[in-house]
Amino acid sequence: MGVIQVDGLWKTYGDITAVNQMNFAVERGELYGFLGPNGAGKTSTIRMLTGQLQPDAGTVRVLETDPTATPLETRRRVGILPEQQSPPSFLTPREYLEFVGDVRDLDSEWIAEQTAVWADRLGFESKLDTLHTDLSRGQQQKVMITQAFIHEPDVVFIDEPLANLDPLVQEQVKRYLVSYAAGDNAVFVSTHNIDVAEEICSRVGIVADGRIVTERSLQSDSGERRDESLLELFLERVEGAGVRDAPSLGRIGDRER
Ligand SMILES: Nc1ncnc2c1ncn2[C@@H]1O[C@H](COP(=O)(O)OP(=O)(O)OP(=O)(O)O)[C@@H](O)[C@H]1O
């Protein structure tokens, strides 16, 4: 069984089927990219994997916990960087990371040390005692990345990890994600950035209309990365699934062929 195991997952909102018989598994050591057009069901899936949303059917296991039955246990053991979320405006990064450490029962000295390590790594030392409301979007994203990793979880879920980051920090974060997964952890990244997925992911699942339409390993057996374009595969599979929200993809794909 994978550290993330999804079988027959199903979620509807009224008449809309957001997740439709989704199946996949992620193993330790993988940096798994979850790719799909707008409305494909990625956020709904992540929310069910992290105990924030109840499925209508199917089973989900994360580190052998059941996030639908014991969401707090799952959330204690994983890191989560949700889509477009900011740290609380009325706290500073130091206060917020202390709070995160408290919630996770971590030693306060250790959290203080880790806060310094992460502030140095991502370059927000000078902002540690500034209210989040006075930080830029990118500086807030650095704090959100820190809270997802600070307790060294075995599994991390990240929605658009590089949003708002400058190119230098993007490179650092990409390298960190690769090395973190390689350290016998699993990193699950939802992104629209196909180039980044192709660069850092060891495997991707392409989602369309609420299900995985294809999976691809991005490393050959010899460990070399493959030559075929992930963008081409994405366009072909998403169009093949007849996705409602992607009417212009054919034109983009035709131009590139
Ligand atoms: N709370 C909700 N109520 C009703 N419909 C919803 C709700 N949340 C999502 N949906 C619908 O479910 C479908 C899947 O949405 P979801 O947010 O999971 O997609 P996504 O792949 O994360 O999209 P994006 O890439 O645009 O963030 C969409 O059609 C969306 O409109």
Automatic annotation (TrEMBL):
GO terms for molecular function: ATP binding; ATP hydrolysis activity. CDD domains: ABC_DR_subfamily_A (cd03230). Residues 4-234 form the ABC transporter domain. InterPro entries: AAA+_ATPase, ABC_transporter-like_ATP-bd, ABC_Transporter_VariousFunc, P-loop_NTPase. This is ABC transporter. PANTHER family: ABC TRANSPORTER ATP-BINDING PROTEIN ALBC-RELATED. It comes from Natronolimnohabitans innermongolicus JCM 12255. It holds the Pfam family ABC_tran. Signal peptide: none annotated. Keywords: ATP-binding, Nucleotide-binding, Transport.
